[in-house]
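Review form for a predicted model. The reviewer records the input and the model, then writes brief findings.
Reviewer: anonymous (R2)
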Amino acid sequence: MMRPPMNGPGPTCIGERLHDIDAARSAVPRALHGLAVHSPWRYLLRAAQVSFELASTSLLDRLAPPRGGVTEVTQGRCVPRGTSIALYLHWSPSGRISAMVRRQLAIWRDCGFDVVFISNADPPPEDWDAVSEHAVLRVRRRNTGRDFGAWRDGAALALQHWPRPYELLLANDSVLGPFRPLQPIVAALRAGGEGLFGLTESRGGGVHLQSYVLLARGATPVASMLNHLAALRDSHSKWRTVQQGEIGMTRRMLREGHRCAAVFGYDAVCAAADEATRASLGPRFAVGKPWRYPLNPTHHLWRVLIQEMGFPYLKTELVRRNPGGLPGVADWPDLVTSADATMIRDHLAVYSTGSPRAASDLTESRKSFRDAERI
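Model under review:
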C-alpha cells in the first residue's frame, strides 16, 4: 500500500554502494524500448513523429544551421581552486535567475566545485551580478544546442583557465530542490573512484545516466567527457541532441572502459515500488518485474525516489507539465517542507513570467521553452 503524504522531507536513504550500469543492457536498440512502454499503435505514431522531426530538422540544419556562440564571458567573485569544475546551465523565458537556482549554485560551491555559470538566456543586471557571488566564471550564450551545447561551450572556456580538472560536473536547473542535503550524495559519487557517475539511471530510450547531474572523475574519464562534448554539433532536433548527448555519453564512456554508476540504481528504485505504485503505471506493471521495462524513474517513480529512497529533487518538467499524465503529481508539496515548497513555487513562477521585451520576442521565448525540454 502506498504510504500517506509525509508533510516533510522524509528519510535520507543514500545507498551503501553505487549501482553500476550494465553495458549489455545499454546496447539494446532504442526501438525495443519504445515497444515495451507503448501500445503498437502509439509506438507507430511516436515513430512517425520522430521520423518527421528528424527529416525536417535535418533539412533545417543544412539550410539554416543553428547560430550558436558565446556572447559574454565575465569573471565571478569566487576564488577558483581549479581541480573540481561544475558547469551549470540556466534558462528561463525572462532571463530571471531564481533564488532556488542561486541556492543550487551555493550548494555546489560548498561541495567543493568551482562553478561556471552558463545562461542560455539574457539575465537582468541584478540577477547577473547576484550569481557572481557563487561563480568563478559567468557565460552568456545564444539558446542553441540545449544543455549539451551549453556545456560544450562552457567546458571550452573553463579549460582556458583550469586545464587539468580532476572532476568535471554537469548540472542544470531542470530539477527542483534540493530539499535534502546534497553533501552525502556527492560523497557517494566521489566514493566511486574514477569514472562517470550520476544520481539516477534511466532505461527510457536506452540505458543511460540522466544528465541533470553527471560527474566525471579522474583525468582519463574527464578527458573522455570533454571529447564527447567537443564532438557535439548544435541541431534543431531535440531527439538527436538527447540521443547523441545524454544517451550517447553513457554509451561512449562504457565503450571506452570507464565505470558508469548511479547513486539510485534502476533495479533498486523499481524494487522499492509497492503494488499500488506499479498498478498506477498500467496493467503490465501490476504483475511481474517492472524493472524489465524502460521507465524514466524521475517521472514514473518520482514518489518512490523521494519517499522511499531519499532522493533530493523533483523534475521541473514533471511538476510543470506531467507529460505522462501520472497520478498524484499535484501532491508533491506534501513531500517537502513548507519552506522548500515556497522556494520551488517561486522558481516555477519565474518560468511563467515572460520577458519585458516585445511581444514577438516573448512568443519566441515561450516557443523555445516548449522546444527545449530540459534533459
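Findings: Confidence is low (pLDDT under 50) at residues 1-10, 355-374.
Further findings: The longest strand covers residues 195-202.
Recommendation: see findings above.
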